[in-house]
Amino acid sequence: MNQVAAPLLTPEQNSLALWALLVLVLPLIAGGLVLIFGKKLPRQGDWLAIATTGLAFFLALYLFFQVWENKTVHVSWSWFQLATGKTSIISFTAGVYLDNLAVLMLVIVTFISLLVQVFSVIYMHGEWRYHHYFGYLGIFTFSMLGIVLSDNLLLLFIFWELVGFSSYLLIGFWYEKDAAVLAGKKAFLFNRVGDIGFLFGIFLLYTYLQTFDLTLLKNAIATGVNQGGTFIFPVLTGQADSVTLSYTLLTLAGLGIFCGCVGKSAQFPLQVWLPDAMEGPTPVSSLIHAATMVAAGVYLLSRCFPFFTEDALLVIAIIGALTALLGALAATAQYDIKKILAFSTISQLGYMVMGMGVGAHDASLLHLVTHAFFKASLFLNAGIVIHAMHHAAHEFSDEHSDVQDIRNMGGFRKILPFTFYAYIPAAAALVGLPLFSGFLSKDAILTGAWAWAGLMSQNGNLLYYLIPVFGFGSVLLTGFYMAKHCFYIFFGESKLYKEPELLRENKTAEASGLLLVPVAILAVLSLAFFFSLNPFSYAGSWVMQGVSWQKLLTGQPGLSGGLLPAITTYLHDASYISLVTAILSVLLAVVGIWLGWLSYKKAVTAGSLSTITAPTSGFSRLAYYHFYLDAFYEKVIINPFMRLSGGAAAFDKNFIDYSLNTFAKIMVVLAKLIGWVDRWLVDGTVHLLVKVAGLIGRLGRFMQNGKVQSYYIFSLLGLILLFLYILAF
Amino acid sequence: MNNIPLIPVLLLGAVLFCLGILAVITKRHAIVVLMGIELIFNAANLNLVAFNRHQPDLMQGQVFSVFVMVIAAAESAVALAIILKVYSYFKTVNLDQIRHESDV
């Protein structure tokens, strides 16, 4: 592994790596300081957290302009060494890997973290653990940057877990609420399920290829030769012979790594934690559960793309498509403003994962970037709306109405005009309307999926077309639920704000700059213009060109072999696909919006706009309860597990404790017995000896009494005894 | 006179010996104890003489008893001298009272 420190390391690369490390630790230092000393600092230290994140952002920008489309920096240091035998030592390295993707993610994470922290200053104002909040955000930003910068899987896994931990802290931030505690626990546990798979994947790769380093792994796999189902890798460091690996094993390793993505990126069947995670503060939902952390799974897929075989990619594509469709379906039946966005996030993550699976690697990453901006924007705006609803419910409504239920909302177009104008571009980007960022990325993914299906179904199996069909179906559903969402929130009559002065008051509340600046910036960044000079075509997108597989994977597509080049040529030959996809997706989105409008109109005319009822029809119930996945887990996993643990506890109490107690009693009896023996036999013997010695001593003393005559008697007696002895024998 | 049997003489010697022992053991006065010792000597002498008479070929027994008498006289002189010194040191010749502190 020592060959990581390649000779082409220049001082410039070293300094860039050090700058990257600085970006990494800045949020941690600030977070730690705020967490510990926050109470004593003025304003509880929020300025410190924001300033350091801002500094980290500018450093990230510097790194971005140094590295983007320019060079790749890989610096690693010796981490620790383990002795495997008497002579052999394996050394592990840890380092920084900066390529186009890493610096792009660096900028996005620091940027959105900065905006969210600025937003939180007002949003979280007056919270009694205000400084903890900023401390946790600092820890989160640190861990997320760690994932982005890690050059090996082990380090990445550590940061991966740290991200899960900080997510847990922030979901359960309001731990006075039971729901928040439960949601945090649920998120943590569901992530663990995925992480076990991830760990197994890492172990598999390490066991056979003897390295955690991503670059080395990539190189090892690139040099592997496929010989009829088995891959033969040439000599690796520390190994005598070449390594032979079966295709199945490699697929399993890839799927193991994908498990980590399934957990973190809320893919089917582990996606149920994400809607519950909305119990956390809304800015947290924006940063962690929409823009960055959940996208880490997609980032991981991109980093590990060479390790996926064609079969693994097929599974990834299916899971992604299924998640996209299920998430969108579930979103249509929700009425909680944050839950709709959460399900929409699941659906969009499904898109990204599907994109990875179908080999639309760059499209998927583009979607990651655009989604980060528009979804963060949507969540922050939702935060403003909820804030206003709280205000209204507090001032006006005497009933305890659910402030997050969109059926209680309405008319916010007039009450929060700025938010409205910030919300619409983000929503349009999510739906995928032209001129907005989501259009580019979604179009790219769908085109990729279509091309992949076309390529794969050349053997006559048309089932592959289900993947793009799922994707297109989700476009329609996305249009539907987002239109409904917007109409319910922003149009119609306000149900809570009926008094004009209250309305005016809230208008001034909205105008607080610290709330609106982040929202405005994110809304502007929802425009396609920033991601591609030609807002109607993703082909010219600078992001996509920067993260294309030719550049990121240095032209080595890895185990999937010829799939990526084949798709590229297929697309090149059938260029109509791109155009048809664009037209079709826009059409579907418009139809979806129109359906959403119809559904809203129907509710308005039926007068059932604000009647809050549980869903009645079979399908809407199915979607509302998220296909009863939670109930399924409850029945199939949690309940049996609880019963098992109950049984184990009973066994423990009735059998193990009982036998232990009995054993203890026997031991006590035995001990008493031994004590008796000790006292009477051992001690008795000793005492007897002592007494005998004493007796002898007394006898001696008695004889030696200083009286001449008694000495004489004794000698006489001795003489008589001697005579008797002689006579007797 | 010639046919005095051996056994009664020996018995007499034994009686004398026992009386001597008795005197040595029981009497407190050092000079009386010395006298008991003389009795024991004489008992031994009597035995020697008796055995000599029983086997008269040699005069060993009689000669030996003369030696014993001489030595006993010398020994008595020494013992009396010791008793005198003891008396001058302890101011008593009572054996029960003659005792060093270190002798218990």
UniProtKB/TrEMBL annotation, chain B:
Protein's membrane topology: Multi-pass membrane protein
The organism's place on the tree of life at top rank: Bacteria
GO cellular component entries: NADH dehydrogenase complex; plasma membrane
EC identifiers of the protein: 7.1.1.-
Pfam families, sorted: Oxidored_q2
GO terms assigned for molecular function: NADH dehydrogenase (quinone) (non-electrogenic) activity; quinone binding
Compartment annotation: Cell membrane; Membrane
Keyword Transcription included in the entry's annotation: no
Catalytic activity, reaction form: a quinone + NADH + 5 H(+)(in) = a quinol + NAD(+) + 4 H(+)(out)
Regions that span the bilayer: 6-25, 32-51, 63-84
GO biological process, one term: ATP synthesis coupled electron transport
Keyword terms of this UniProt record: Cell membrane, Membrane, NAD, Oxidoreductase, Quinone, Translocase, Transmembrane, Transmembrane helix, Transport
Subunit-structure text: NDH-1 is composed of 14 different subunits. Subunits NuoA, H, J, K, L, M, N constitute the membrane sector of the complex.
Family the UniProt entry places it in: Belongs to the complex I subunit 4L family.
Free-text function comment from the UniProt entry: NDH-1 shuttles electrons from NADH, via FMN and iron-sulfur (Fe-S) centers, to quinones in the respiratory chain. The immediate electron acceptor for the enzyme in this species is believed to be a menaquinone. Couples the redox reaction to proton translocation (for every two electrons transferred, four hydrogen ions are translocated across the cytoplasmic membrane), and thus conserves the redox energy in a proton gradient. NDH-1 shuttles electrons from NADH, via FMN and iron-sulfur (Fe-S) centers, to quinones in the respiratory chain. The immediate electron acceptor for the enzyme in this species is believed to be ubiquinone. Couples the redox reaction to proton translocation (for every two electrons transferred, four hydrogen ions are translocated across the cytoplasmic membrane), and thus conserves the redox energy in a proton gradient.
Protein's name according to its UniProt entry: NADH-quinone oxidoreductase subunit K
Gene that this sequence comes from: nuoK
